[in-house]
Amino acid sequence: METRFSFIKRLLRQIYNDQPSDDSNITTNLVNRWLNDAIGAAAKKNYTDNLQMDGVAYVNNSFYTTFSGLPITQGPDQFTYQMSLPQIPVGLGNNEGVGVLQFVDSNGNISDPAIPLSENQVGYFRNMRPIPNKILYFSEGMFLFALSTLQLNNFTGKVRMVSGGDSTNLNSTLNVPDDYMPVMVEYIKNQLAWERAQARVSTNDGVES
Amino acid sequence: MNYLLGQFQTYNYGKPESRVQFGVNETARQRLSPLINPLSSLTIDITGLASYPTGFEQVDAMFTITMDRIRFFPQHRLYSYLNDPIDPINTNPGYVLESGGFRFYPNATYNGTQLPGALISYVQTPAPIFWNSTPDTNGRPIYTSAGSTGLPWYDVDNFEVVVRALKMVGVNLSVSELLQYGDAIIKQGQ
């Protein structure tokens, strides 16, 4: 297992061929931003790999992270509740973005998982026969909308989604399996090596450099 | 110092950013180490200004009081550094160089966030080398250690200093010539 920070340091060592200097421009925060893209690229690779190997497109469990304690507020429409996701879900093929949504009350009691709606179903589900005693949900950008006649404001959301983990905490574990680390390393190395290789004007001044 | 020990840094025209930092080369570092004291504190006012310390020649390293880095900001990139959403200025401080001292960002005047201080390692101006003497009864100057200031460097560098000093007055003395002379003495005798 590797934390985000140790993975970033590993990349920096490779890019600088040494420890980065104190005034280095390729900073930890910058690499952390690229890391989010790289996790998406690795998840996509895993999705297509699985399709080729198993004939079924899915993202392996190793990529999933559960986020809990998401506050729920009244949504824009009647019987709609919304919560903000830690990140915009990956846009992989037949994937609803958020794999599992549950509700937790103040005593820690957890509901059954809600039923996800695909992007097409969001358009016509109100014309369908309701599923008794089930809460429906769909994600849109960084928001997750839950559709229910129950008051959900008093609960918090618990979601399971494809994510590399908590991008705001550099000491968090990077939720990517080792066999997909090379995909991320190659992706980030290409971006940052390109940045490093940019020519800098050193003999002239007064021009943008 | 540069005349005697050599030019440690080269600069890009118009940019106060050296191509090679002091810390890069261990030999240069070793030579300069007598002129680099342990970290000392800088007091920063609400406009972010901190005066240059006594005998200041060149920044070696700059840290916050919790040993996080403080970067040098080239003046023509200051706006970009101040408005960088990836490395927010409040958690990624820096400084520019002005005639009155270092101007640190962030500061209370700029955005209300004040750095509590900074730690600096810097190259100091060496004390002037002075050969003090007192005249003897015939008026000849006799060296006296009181009031004299020697070279601050290590012996191996002192030799370099002497060689360069002699070069400046027109005497060419180099190791290769000394060795050649020594070889000649060994082979031919005096």
Note down, in words, how this protein is organized.
- The complex is a heterodimer of chains A (209) and B (190).
- With 209 residues, chain A is of the alpha+beta class.
- Chain A has 4 helices and 8 strands, in the order ααβββββαβββα.
- Chain A starts with a helix and ends in a 12-residue tail after the last helix.
- Chain B is α+β, with helices and mostly antiparallel strands.
- Chain B folds into 2 domains: 36-124, no CATH class; 133-188, no CATH class.
- Chain B has 6 helices and 11 strands.
- Chain B has helices spanning 2-5, 26-32, 78-82, 108-111, 155-168, 175-188, and strands spanning 11-12, 15-18, 40-42, 49-50, 56-64, 71-72, 94-98, 101-105, 118-124, 133-135, 141-143.
- Chain B has a 4-stranded mixed β-sheet with strand order 4-8-7-6.
- In chain B, a hairpin with a 2-residue loop joins strand 1 and strand 2.
- The radius of gyration of chain B is 23 Å and the shape is elongated.
- Chain B starts with a helix and ends with a helix.
- The model of chain B has no long low-confidence stretch (mean pLDDT 83).
- Chain A binds chain B through residues 21-23, 27, 29-30, 33, 202-206, and chain B through 12-15, 19, 21, 23, 61, 69, 71-72, 86-87, 92.
Name some characteristics of this structure.
heterodimer, A: 209 residues, alpha+beta, five-stranded mixed β-sheet, three-stranded antiparallel β-sheet, 29% helix, 20% strand, elongated, disordered C terminus, B: 190 residues, four-stranded mixed β-sheet, 6 helices
Secondary-structure topology with pairs:
The complex is a heterodimer of chains A (209) and B (190).
Chain A: H1 4-16, H2 28-54, E1 64-71, E2 73-74, E3 80-84, E4 98-104, E5 115-116, H3 121-124, E6 136-140, E7 143-147, E8 156-162, H4 181-197
Parallel strand pairs in A: 5-6
Antiparallel strand pairs in A: 1-8, 2-3, 3-7, 4-8, 6-7
Helix pairs in contact in A: 1-2, 2-4
Chain B: H1 2-5, E1 11-12, E2 15-18, H2 26-32, E3 40-42, E4 49-50, E5 56-64, E6 71-72, H3 78-82, E7 94-98, E8 101-105, H4 108-111, E9 118-124, E10 133-135, E11 141-143, H5 155-168, H6 175-188
